[in-house]
Amino acid sequence: MILVLCPNPSVDTQIHVDQLEPGRIHASRSTTPWPGGKGVHVALAARELGAEVELAGFWAGPTGAWIRQECERRGVSTHGPELEGWTRRCVTYLESDGRETEVRETGASLGRSSMKEWNEVLDPLLKRASLVCVSGSWPAGTPAQPYQWLSDRCRDLSIPLWVDASGVWLEAAVETGPYGLHVNRDEVNELLGDSLSAGEAARKLVLSCEVAAVTDGADGLWLAHHDQLVHGRCSVDTVISTVGCGDCLTGGLLAAQAENRSLSDQVRHSVAAGSANCLSGELGLIQRADVERLLPTVELTDHRRP
Fold first, then answer.
1. pLDDT higher than 70, residue 305
2. Of 27, 63, 171, 296, which is most buried, counting CB atoms within 10 Å of its CB?
């Protein structure tokens, strides 16, 4: 079982308007909510690809209950403490010319006992997991180092722990030495205080973990493991939305790794999953048929050191 942790889930709401102008009242042409938060996207992508997946998060109010309901409906069991308030919304205003404006709510905050409850919920789940991924930001009130207990517990149980994070959360994750890290090129360069290519960044980041995945937008994925470095990219004719592409790529990576595929195959399945998200009008949700159709088109390059 793959256990995905989403500390800060959200209702991703897409509002279509003709043109967004500050200070004016707008009538929407349509409004659609999707279950969101990086970890939610990861879990649903891996499940769509056939993996057994369970999801843990912090949930609050009607919005949190709705996300859980949608995940359960799609075959992903959910767990985690209930917080006071409401789980946040991330609202994207999509104009007729394709321009997007996003507003992210703060959402519910952790209480004094929230992390203790979180660890108590996770412990029995970890004992059943073969792979763990914690993805995205953390709610307000989270202690400065939220990964240490999880990292130590995964190490005790010999379970690979993946982290997908940015900013202060990425810095905190690196301190604990996780098995795998997934970041984009800008995030890793901010962490390293450098301006490296994605491939160079992957080689440097793998010094802090066992496997490093660095994405670079349309240029695809660089996956580093020891002296191996594999690059994969895939072109799609139509891009409906790029929201959640990196998360779906992570879901593809976890599903491939759970099947003990080779590093090259992990790259192929990851890139196909991330690219398939571009073809979907559902934010952060992919279709397995799209992934399977794209798999043969993924271009791989092995940059193994001699």
1. no
2. 63
